[in-house]
Amino acid sequence: MISTHSSVSTFSHLGDRPQFDAENKPAQAVTYWLTRDIVRGVFPPGKRLKVAELSDFYKVGYSPVRDAIHAQAFYELVSHEHFRGYAVAPVSLTDYDEVLQAFQQIYKLAAKMALEQGGNDWEESLIVELHRSKKVVKVMPDADPELREYWQRAYWSFHYKILEGCGSKTLLNFFTQLANRLERYVSLYADMESDRTRENHAEHESLIKAIVDRDENEFMFQIDSYFSRSNTIRESIKQSLKQL
Questions:
Q1: Which residue numbers delimit the GntR C-terminal domain (predicted)?
Q2: Is pLDDT of 126 > 50?
């Protein structure tokens, strides 16, 4: 069974952040769709991923589907068992704790490097990204799924832009992998009520101000504050996982 959650492949548009061109770049499109659909819970943990089924689901050929599955296996959103094929990766409290710890450490390491190495072009790009992100209305999970996805994309794009100043493709790849795995836990198990009144745009402004001021102590303080404001959500995820 495939979840009744809507697939990102059905979304008509995402504002100024368009989808991949499925006709001309099917492998990229399906890889993106499958990533987001696993993260969002369209395909739940343990769901067997059959090429024929996904080909029909996404209306593409077998080859781009195989490429997409292999990509998710590399990024640990998909697991493989001999004689049983591929399935959406399982979840556990131990895995969540490990992903969360690694995510925070990678984020802080890349952020510190970005502040030290990022030049004026990077700093100016952050101002533009902040401006763009502030135009996107925050949407909660219980609202329109396409608008929620647009918000999620703008949110992660902002943080990726900050870390991009580190200049390390390796760290950025780790960040992307961990961010997807972490977001999956949020999508599946978090009680998001405490996030309803959170002022994300104001938090983003504080991060950018510290960067523009080149104030490392303030920047790291703002990052720690950003992490701590999600403690209630994290605790709800842990409680949910303990009941599995």
A1: 99-217
A2: yes
